[in-house]
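Colleagues,

For the teaching module next term, I've prepared a clean inverse folding example: a structure given as tokens, and then the sequence designed for it. I'd like students to try predicting residues themselves before seeing the answer, so please don't circulate the second half yet.
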């Protein structure tokens, strides 16, 4: 059975027993694991002697109570998957362990966090950065693995690590996609069968429209509620709602050019 540490004291004992010079890779998650998480774990297993995964559904990053309550978590299933992958240890603290200060202290960023996801989800990035700082500090890992699907999150985490001189390397991993192009996400499980089929139209429009305005118009016509489509820093970012499920995605603009060329 894979060891699961739920208290900080158990976790600290594990950390103190790590052999000096052995590398530890860390994959923070909120559970509801899918192939996207598995790809982060596999990368960590390949690059480190040991791999730890955290499962902590961090309620401070949810600005919407129903999104938090319906988050598709399944702890036993997650553990079985991590065991199959060969993960060495799981850290699964509760809210009291992670927030002894009851969230009186938080990390805020005052530029990048104020656009896109930061506008649609007020307070989201404070919750993300605060919990990631706590997790990275506790992990004692040399490397931590984040997916590019949450690109704004990845950029902010990298910025925080630099700003606070955290002794850890943030490894960016390519977005894992289903065969029809939809970015994998725990929330996809909440779509109906028909909704799941239709969701594949989102990456298709995002990658073929010439401008964000064109993409927005086509997505609305296709029945998506569009939160934003923005070209920024060489990437196209989008967020939409379908059947009350939030989908986000991003692509580099150079990839979009190539994709368009091949579609002509
Ligand atoms: O990307 C996620 O799953 C979460 O935002 C993270 C990084 C685990 C923090 O709760």
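(Answer key — instructors only)
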């Amino acid at each position: 059975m894979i060891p699961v540490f739920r208290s900080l004291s158990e976790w600290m004992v594990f950390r103190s027993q790590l052999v000096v010079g052995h590398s530890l890779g860390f994959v923070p998650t909120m559970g509801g694991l899918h192939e996207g998480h598995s790809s982060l774990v596999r990368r960590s297993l390949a690059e480190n002697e040991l791999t730890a995964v955290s499962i902590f559904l961090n309620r401070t990053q949810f600005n919407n109570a129903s999104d938090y309550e319906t988050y598709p978590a399944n702890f036993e299933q997650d553990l079985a998957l991590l065991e199959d992958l060969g993960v060495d240890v799981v850290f699964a603290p509760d809210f009291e362990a992670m927030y002894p200060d009851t969230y009186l202290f938080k990390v805020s960023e005052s530029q990048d966090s104020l656009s896109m996801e930061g506008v649609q989800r007020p307070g989201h990035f404070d919750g993300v950065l605060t919990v990631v700082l706590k997790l990275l500090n506790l992990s004692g890992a040399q490397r931590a693995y984040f997916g590019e699907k949450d690109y704004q999150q990845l950029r902010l985490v990298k910025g925080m690590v630099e700003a606070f001189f955290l002794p850890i390397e943030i490894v960016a991993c390519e977005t894992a996609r289903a065969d029809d192009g939809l970015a994998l996400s725990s929330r996809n499980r909440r779509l109906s069968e028909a909704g799941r089929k239709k969701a594949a139209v989102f990456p298709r429009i995002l990658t073929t429209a010439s401008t964000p305005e064109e993409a927005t118009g086509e997505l609305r016509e296709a029945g998506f509620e569009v939160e934003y489509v923005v070209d920024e820093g060489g990437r196209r970012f989008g967020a939409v709602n379908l059947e009350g499920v939030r989908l986000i995605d991003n692509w580099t603009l150079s990839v979009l050019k190539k994709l368009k060329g091949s579609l002509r």
